[in-house]
Write a structure and sequence with these properties.
The protein is an alpha+beta fold. The chain is built from twelve helices and 18 strands.
Length: about 425
């Protein structure tokens, strides 16, 4: 959510930003909220003036009564009553106007960074850099569900009976490998100085509204029936929500945390072949990272954060690349974002395994996350990035570490988490 002062002082910039995001249908909202804001400020000014007048008049009543000027005192009382009635009416109008303004402001996209490429959708995202050599082996790489089947590691049929489509059982070495990767990602981030956390896996609606747009919430979140609680789609949400309404001392900045959680999303399964696999599922596990920092430090942290993810995947012997998200692919709260994509030897292309985002002060403004220092109190910037999310990361791992004989090589960094195993042998 942007600062309303930006609309008051430079609404053309706001409109130009909307155009860059190819959301022209939102352009009338800028003029609408500008007019509502004028009404709100005029109403507030009148309320302030009436209160001041009421206070002045109220102070006169006692003096008039003391001087036994009863009739004059009653006249003043009547005027105070009129003022109170008018204040009550205006306060009600003020509340309605404030809610209308807030609703519109929540839908106007954040101002994107000047470095963001202009494009309509993800097809116009820009490749930044490749890390590692994307190789295609001299043998056919099976679909990941078949690789998992070869080590007796996946059961979607039973999950369909217990939970429906989009769920799965990971078994044996596959389950162990999944947890090993998450644990390695956790320990890697701890080594970078991040504080490890396990957050709540359910959050209230005011937190949800604070960290994401309404459209995203409707598309992603599972709501707990009869309660003001949502299952987290990513632990970033509850981690940022931890600081809702808080004033953080500058000496405690930056806040750097890495968190684990299961994640729940409404994503539907793909058709055909992909339906057998783990590309789009309703439940997965993720190691996440967040940073809350001074505004002037956020871009430095953005560059650091996505590089952590690259390092992790390269340590797992998985080639990756980074893509700069274009303007039309940015969620409304984001200032700048990039995707980390892993190489798929089977598909002979890259696919998304993580995303790093700088949200500026949008989340902080919605949630009231501020810092206090020598120069006073100010809104902070928030950032988030995927450390490692499985099963997407598991898919990339299986394809890139599969050997010709069907065995799966375990890189050195994972071996301590796998009981010293160097290889997983097929069972079928």
């Amino acid at each position: 959510m942007i600062d309303i002062n930006l609309i008051r002082t430079n609404k053309e910039l706001v409109k130009e930003n909307i155009k860059k995001k190819f959301q022209d249908q939102k352009l009338p909202l800028v003029d609408e909220v500008e007019e509502l804001d004028k009404q709100f400020r005029a109403t507030k000014q009148e309320v302030d003036e009436l209160r001041a007048s009421r206070n002045t008049l109220s102070s006169k009543i006692g003096a008039l009564m003391k001087d036994k000027k009863i009739e004059e005192a009653n006249q003043v009382k009547e005027q105070v009553k009129k003022n109170n009635d008018r204040i009550a009416k205006l306060e009600s109008e003020e509340e309605v106007l404030s809610e209308k303004i807030k609703k519109i402001m929540m839908t106007i996209p954040n101002i994107i960074d000047k470095s963001v490429p202009i494009g309509k959708d993800d097809s116009q995202n820009v490749e930044l850099q490749k890390f590692g050599e994307p190789k295609v082996p001299d043998f056919e790489v099976p679909y990941h569900a078949d690789i998992l089947d070869s080590i007796c590691g996946l059961d979607k049929e039973s999950a369909g009976r217990t939970s429906g489509n989009g769920f799965y059982y990971l078994l044996g070495d596959a389950a162990r490998l999944h947890e090993a990767m998450i644990a390695y990602g956790r320990d890697f981030m701890i080594e970078q100085g991040f504080t490890y956390a396990i957050p709540p896996f359910m959050i209230r609606s005011d937190v949800v509204n604070g960290v994401m747009s309404f459209a995203e919430m409707e598309a992603m979140m599972y709501k707990i029936e009869g309660e003001d609680l949502y299952l987290v789609g990513t632990s970033e949400h509850s981690m940022i929500g931890r600081f809702k309404g808080q004033i953080i001392s500058e000496i405690d900045l930056p806040v750097t945390m890495t968190s684990y959680s299961p994640c729940f999303r409404k994503e539907g399964g793909a058709h055909g072949l992909e339906e057998r696999g783990l590309y789009r599922v309703h439940q997965f596990e993720k190691q996440e990272m967040i940073v809350i920092c001074k505004p002037e430090d956020s871009m430095k942290w953005y560059e650091k954060m996505w590089k952590y993810t690259v390092d992790i995947f390269r340590n797992l012997d998985i080639p990756v690349r980074t893509l700069e998200c274009c303007s039309g692919d940015l969620a409304d709260l984001k200032v700048k974002s990039c995707d980390v994509e892993a190489w798929s030897p089977r598909q002979k292309k890259y696919f998304e395994v993580g995303s790093c985002s700088n949200l500026g002060d949008a989340q902080a403004r919605r949630l009231g996350i501020r810092a206090k220092g020598e120069k006073g109190t100010y809104l902070l910037h928030t950032l988030n990035n995927t450390v490692l999310a499985s099963p997407r990361a598991l898919i990339a791992f299986l394809e890139n570490n599969l050997q010709k004989d069907g065995s799966i090589r375990i890189p050195k960094v994972l071996q301590p988490y796998m009981g010293g195993k160097e290889v997983i042998l097929p069972k079928k």
